[in-house]
Write a structure and sequence with these properties.
- This protein starts with a helix and ends with a helix.
- The radius of gyration is 17 Å and the shape is elongated.
- With about 90 residues, the chain is an all-alpha fold.
- The chain contains 3 helices and no strands.
- Helix content is about 85%, strand content about 0%.
Length: about 90
């Protein structure tokens, strides 16, 4: 995993197919992490449902939603870099 600075530098200078493929792979990995987190939060939400502390599941519901949105954004970024890799010189 690149550091925030390394990622920022690569994104700012990306111009070759290899640069865009590296960014694509980073965002694909990030999307998978967010998808796994969303699944875990959904599992927690279901665990709390029907218990005396069902309200605790509301936080898990929110976090699952946020994780799904982050997954969509990372997937879109991966697709963009996949397309740019095909266009780059």
């Amino acid at each position: 995993m690149p550091t925030d600075k390394e990622l920022s530098d690569l994104a700012a200078k990306a111009g070759t197919p290899a640069d865009h493929r590296a960014l694509m792979e980073y965002f694909q990995t990030t999307a998978k992490r967010h998808a796994a987190a969303a699944s875990e939060y959904t599992r927690l939400e279901q665990t709390y449902r029907g218990t005396r502390i069902a309200a605790a599941g509301l936080n898990a519901t929110h976090l699952a939603r946020v994780s799904r949105e982050a997954e969509k954004e990372a997937s879109a970024a991966a697709k963009m870099h996949e397309d740019l890799a095909g266009l780059a010189r």
